[in-house]
Amino acid sequence: MYKLVKPLFFSMNPEMAHHQVTGGLRKFNKIWGAKTLLKSIYAVEDKRLEREVFGLKFKNPVGLAAGFDKNAEYIEEMAGLGFGFIEIGTVTPRPQPGNDKPRMFRLVQDAGLINRMGFNNQGADVAAARLQQLTDRKNLIIGGNIGKNKLTPNEEAVNDYIYCFNALFDGVDYFVVNVSSPNTPGLRDLQEKEPLKHILHTLQQLNISKAVQKPILLKIAPDLTNSQLDDIVEIVTETQIAGVIATNTTIARDGLQSEPTLVKEMGGVSGKPLTKRSTEVIRYLSKKSNGSFPIIGVGGIHSGQDALDKIAAGASLVQLYTGFIYEGPALVSQICKTLLRQPS
């Protein structure tokens, strides 16, 4: 089904295509029987797919990465396509428009994307209100990916993370601290050891003060050196956060085959160009930490085998974004079926 409409969507501006797909899916789901039809086509339900990670029970290990549903608008629609968990965001305290358009570009020859969206979102309060309106989550795990506003100085960034944490706390099951997007000026400076420790320590203390604690994860860049990855392992251990998401988009441009003018566009690269590096980062973190914390693997998953490679490297769960755009919703069921074929 997706192969038939993909050429139409790929003829559009990527951001426009995104809105057409999500809006069309919402309208389709309002038709009587549509939800049941999509579930029968795409959802794979099997007890063997269930995973318990950082204290949460996932009905399957395939999630939708942050960036696709920034404002918690399409949770039910995406869950109907078989995802085991949905991560909203990145959410910032105040609404912001993001960077100037165009800000997303397809690297078709590389099965990748370049984006410099810039945390465009409607703000934490809007996302929180939508989460509260969900009537039936059907055991779906929802994560909240949080960041800082573009105009917030780095020395005050912790206050933005605190605001988002409090605003979304009742609506999400876990949090992701995003300091690794390349599209907000200075944001990646927060990955340095001391600023990062300050943010994570502060959120953990706030978390402990709550009646019920929520897992906090850290999303990291694929461009970190081994020495910086060593620091990440140390920070995760010291702050006792729940785990790591590896990885965000890359600023590297090595080996890209697409049109040179596109390759030169500013922003982070996702999709197949990221497959190898993100798996390397997962493997390094897993070995260096002796598997002491869970890792969610994301970056260049376009097949069941790609997901298996991430899991073999040390990931407990995986997430899709660009692979989902290129391969369509059948990718979720393909990964689940691939996992079920593996020896127990």
UniProtKB/TrEMBL annotation:
Binds 1 FMN per subunit. Its EC number is 1.3.5.2. It is found in: Cell membrane; Membrane. Its cofactor is FMN. InterPro entries: Aldolase_TIM, DHO_dehydrogenase, Dihydroorotate_DH_1_2, Dihydroorotate_DH_2, Dihydroorotate_DH_cat, Dihydroorotate_DH_CS. Pfam families: DHO_dh. FMN binds at residues 66-70, 90, 145, 178, 219, 247, 271, 300, 321-322. Pathway: Pyrimidine metabolism; UMP biosynthesis via de novo pathway; orotate from (S)-dihydroorotate (quinone route): step 1/1. Residues 49-340 form the Dihydroorotate dehydrogenase catalytic domain. One of its GO terms (molecular function) is dihydroorotate dehydrogenase (quinone) activity. It comes from the Bacteria. It catalyses: (S)-dihydroorotate + a quinone = orotate + a quinol. The active site is at 181 (nucleophile). The keyword 4Fe-4S does not apply. NCBIfam families: PRK05286.1-2, PRK05286.2-5, pyrD_sub2. Catalyzes the conversion of dihydroorotate to orotate with quinone as electron acceptor. Monomer. This is Dihydroorotate dehydrogenase (quinone).
